[in-house]
Amino acid sequence: KQAMLKVSDLKKHFPQKSGILQRTKNVVRAVDGISFEINEEETFSLVGESGCGKSTTGRSILRLHEPTSGEILYNGTDIMNYSKREFRNLRRDLQMIFQDPYSSLNPRMTVRNLLLEPLLTHNICSKKEAEQRIIDIAEKVGLSKEQINRHPHEFSGGQRQRISIARALILNPKVVILDEAVSALDVSIQAQILNLLIELQQELKLTYLFISHDLNVVRHVSDRVGVMYLGQMMETAKTDELYSDPLHPYTKSLLSAIPSNHPSEKKERIILQGDVPDPSNPPSGCPFRLRCPKAHERCAIEKPVYQEVKENHWVACHLYDQSNLDITNESDYNF
Ligand code: SF4
Ligand code: MG
Predict the structure, then answer these.
(1) Ligand 1 centroid to 332 CA: how many Å?
(2) Which of 228, 291, 296 has most ligand 1 atoms within 8 Å of CB, for mutation?
(3) What distance in Å separates the CA atoms of residue 48 and residue 52, rounded to the nearest whole number?
(4) Which molecular-function annotations from GO does this UniProt entry contain (predicted)?
(5) Is 74 exposed, middle or buried (0-12, 13-18, 19+ CB in 10 A)?
(6) How far apart are CA 234 and CA 272, in angstroms?
(7) Separation of 279 CA from ligand 1 center, angstroms?
């Protein structure tokens, strides 16, 4: 089965001037060679600390940033070299929902006009058909006919996010990129919106790229999860496997920080030393080595290969290097 979205070795480097005279040119390696696939109707999540490049990845796929290099296949078609115009048409199929519905909704427009706008932009249907589509999508996201005459400020944060969801879905997209889509909401509202997103995915057969720093939220919605650090993919696995049997030391430390649901389950918090390095000056070898409790000599010299170490379980760490496995002590993995 062909992937709905296939990203290979994607890079997004931002030039940055620095120094007193702004003459030194640095390159910020926001996304530095990541690869992943998302199957049809699947939810794939990107997690990692802020600044790890997950949002830049989403934005690069939608060409809100021009990618530096790599390959992006949508439904088997290479969209990396699409012209602006070709891409504009494609945007019907690929939509994005952002964290902050306050800033993405024009306060002067009614909900009706906010929903009408994408239909007009893409010249999709007659005014009469548009009205029916607006009512249908509003109903799907839980907004009443009467509410579509109101303005965004008359709604709560959760309802505003319903409006953004409706606005993204009115074009019948295939893929939706959700960037911290529930992060600004109260926990109880988060659950409502997440459940709505899951329902809509099933009903409308959507494929989700779900970007979030919140590991509890990600666990709830994802089929598979990719863990990013310093613009690179550290580990990818099915959700259950990633949470029950994480391999990469970075994933282990992230998971050790979330409270356990079972008080009997003893979990030792792994506190990382230091900060995330500057992405314009990443360390040699393994990007995680300056903070890794398992770092060893090889980690400074050689960058670990991102490889499949179990079925559908990928990791970039020398501890799991296939050529190494027979000589490494099993107990080394459990820290
Ligand atoms: Fe740690 Fe080395 Fe593995 Fe990197 S390659 S995560 S530094 S053990
Ligand atoms: Mg972000």
Answers:
(1) 12
(2) 296
(3) 6
(4) ATP binding
(5) buried
(6) 16
(7) 18
Q: Is the CB of 319 under 6 A from ligand 1?
A: yes
Structure token digits, residue 213: 């720093």
Nearest protein Cα to ligand 1, atom 3: 317
Q: Of the CATH numbers 2.30.30.50, 2.60.120.260, 1.10.287.130, 3.40.50.300, which one belongs to the domain with range 5-93+174-274?
A: 3.40.50.300
Which amino acid residue places its CA nearest to atom 7 of ligand 1? 289
Question: Tokens representing 54?
Answer: 């997950």
Nearest to 239 by CA among 270, 264, 216: 216
Is 11's C-beta closer than 6 angstroms to any atom of ligand 1?
no
Instruction: Specify the ligand 1 atom closest to the Cα of 287.
Output: 4
With a threshold of 0.90, tell me whether the complex ipTM lies above it: yes
CA of 327 to the centre of ligand 2 (A): 40
Give the SS3 label for residue 227.
strand
112 SS3 class: helix
318 lines ligand 1 (CB under 6 A): yes
Which residue ranges make up each domain of the chain?
Answer: 5-93+174-274, 107-172
Which ligand is in closest contact with the Cα of 98?
Answer: 2
Ligand 1, atom nearest to 299 Cα: 2
- Tens-level pLDDT at each residue, the chain (335 residues): 789 999 999 999 998 877 777 776 789 999 999 999 999 999 999 999 989 999 999 999 999 999 999 999 999 999 998 988 899 889 999 999 998 766 778 999 999 999 999 999 888 888 889 999 999 999 999 999 999 999 999 999 999 999 999 999 999 999 999 999 999 999 999 999 999 999 999 999 999 999 999 999 999 999 999 999 999 999 999 999 999 999 999 999 999 988 776 666 667 888 888 888 888 889 999 999 999 999 999 999 999 999 999 999 999 999 998 775 544 444 444 44
